[in-house]
Automatic annotation (TrEMBL):
Organism: Mediterraneibacter butyricigenes
Record-stated family: Belongs to the cation transport ATPase (P-type) (TC 3.A.3) family. Type IB subfamily.
Protein name: Cd(2+)-exporting ATPase
Cellular compartment(s): Cell membrane
Domain of life: Bacteria
Length: 287
């Protein structure tokens, strides 16, 4: 039978905005020694702001319009920022043949031309020569009918408690923090350094994240548990694979919330260490 205090633990956690899906997860959480994060939406707000548009043939307004239209069916944070910067209602009858390639971008027909919006991987895949861009931030490249059209520079903001969250995990005895992201190396390393995260792996596809977590799981001791924290549709497989999966609840995708064992209701990364502390306290009461 399950001790009553387990339920008290779950209740106490939910009061703190931490939803635990079952009492067994409290025990696993209490033994967590490795915390692996996704970047976008987990440590950063995932609410990007367009900070620049660099164009070739078309003008800046046209670039933004094509990007917003091509991305109009996407729920990715990048799409949301493009819609916001465009600022006008989207006539979806202008958009067809939409294909979203996870970790790469979107290809769609807009007004009859083929618009590709995404990272350098997408441009490489389409054999489009792009302009290299060394600015800090996420670079969204665009090609129209296979011809490079320009790029949009967008920047993400760190979550207010992101740095504190990593420090609090260290104080709670977490051995290692790791960040996995689909974003560029330059951006990933800058964020990890700023937050004091021990290890960082960038330019990963969703399947690569699972492989990385499996590598980490293979290296650690049996009794030491690994938690993964993420928010996106892409994170569902890795949330299930970790010893404990923690999802951001407010902005997180349904798939991530479904796959997780624990949900942080307010998306605050500081709640990760709080949840660990609650679980340990609860376990001490039990044994
Ligand atoms: P993260 O792992 O940081 O949460 P994702 O796996 O969601 O990031 O995306 C990785 C990269 O793929 C993004 O940084 C971006 O370059 C590109 N990308 C993914 N989806 C889109 C999209 N809808 N539009 C443009 N670029 C995209
Ligand atoms: Mg994400």
């Amino acid at each position: 039978s399950i001790p009553l205090s387990f339920f008290a633990g779950i209740g106490g956690a939910s009061n703190a905005g931490v939803l635990v899906k079952g009492s067994n997860y409290l025990e696993t959480l209490s033994e967590t020694k490795y915390v692996v994060f996704d970047k976008t939406g987990t440590m950063t707000q995932g609410v990007f702001e367009v900070s620049g548009v660099h164009h070739n043939e078309k003008n800046a307004d046209e670039i933004l319009e094509y990007a917003a239209l091509a991305e109009s069916y996407s729920t990715h944070p990048i799409s949301k920022s493009l819609q916001k910067a465009y600022g006008k209602p989207i006539d979806k009858t202008r958009v067809s043949d939409v294909e979203e390639i996870s970790g790469n971008g979107v290809i769609a027909k807009v007004d009859g031309v083929t618009v590709a919006v995404g990272n350098t991987k997408l441009m490489d895949h389409l054999n489009v020569d792009y302009m290299d861009c060394h600015s800090v931030g996420t670079v969204v490249h665009m090609a129209i009918d296979g011809v490079y059209a320009g790029h949009i520079l967008i920047s993400d903001l760190m979550k207010p408690h992101a740095k504190e969250a990593v420090e609090a995990l260290k104080r709670a005895g977490i051995k290692k923090t790791v960040m996995l992201t689909g974003d560029r190396k330059q951006v990933a390393e800058q964020v990890a350094a700023e937050l004091g995260i021990d290890e960082v792996y960038s330019e990963l596809l969703p399947a690569d994240k699972v492989v990385k977590v499996e590598e980490l799981l293979g290296k650690k001791k049996e009794k030491e548990k690994l938690a993964f924290v993420g928010d996106g549709i892409n994170d569902a497989p890795v949330l299930s694979r970790a010893d404990i999966g923690i999802a951001m609840g407010a902005l997180g995708s349904d798939a991530a919330i479904e796959a997780a064992d624990i949900v942080l209701m307010d998306d605050d990364p500081l709640k990760i260490s709080k949840a660990i502390r609650i679980s340990r306290k609860c376990l001490r009461i039990v044994y």
